[in-house]
Amino acid sequence: MTLKLEQNVQNHIVKDTIKMIIPIRCFSCGKPIGHLWEEYNKRIEAGEDRREILNDLGLDRYCCRALMMGHVDLLEEVAKFKKF
Ligand SMILES: [Zn+2]
Fold first, then answer.
1. Fewer CB near the last or first residue (10 Å), C or N of the chain?
2. pLDDT digits (tens), the chain, 84 positions
3. How far is residue 3 from each of residues 6, 32, 52, 55, measured CA to CA in Å?
4. Residue 28: strand, helix, or coil
5. The CATH number of the domain where 55 resides is what?
6. How many CB atoms lie within 10 A of CB 68?
7. What residue numbers bound the domain in which 71 lies?
8. Could you give the number of structural domains in the chain?
9. pLDDT at position 57, please?
10. Residue 43 lies in a domain
11. 75 C-alpha to center of ligand 1: Å?
């Protein structure tokens, strides 16, 4: 069971299909930002300027911008550990 889980996690990492856990709303102002993450990430990988992307996505306040820029995907790491 555990081995299966680890294999699944590794498969996800290899295929790079694992989903993000970005906060749905900005912690500070409450603006919904979770739905913007995939586009943001795609455009980052395409080599676009972060400032331009954030402006295009309509993230004007620095609280939301910081949340997007500071987000680190730790799901792969966390998934290795059992809760109990
Ligand atoms: Zn905000």
1. C
2. 455 555 555 544 545 555 557 899 999 999 999 999 999 999 999 999 999 999 999 999 999 999 999 988 777 788 888 877
3. 5, 37, 43, 44
4. coil
5. 1.10.10.60
6. 21
7. 34-84
8. 1
9. 96
10. yes
11. 23
Kindly state whether residue 42 falls inside one of the protein's structural domains: yes
Angle at alpha carbon of residue 40, lines to 39 and 45, rounded to 5°: 95
Tell me the CA–centroid distance for residue 66 and ligand 1, in Å.
8
Find the 28 Cα to ligand 1 centroid distance in Å.
Answer: 5
Give a yes or no: residue 57 inside a domain: yes
Length of the chain: 84
Question: What pTM does this model have?
Answer: 0.65
User: What is the 80 CA–ligand 1 centroid distance (Å)?
Assistant: 31
What are the CA-CA distances from residue 67 to residues 11, 31, 36, 55, 74 (Å)?
28, 11, 12, 14, 15
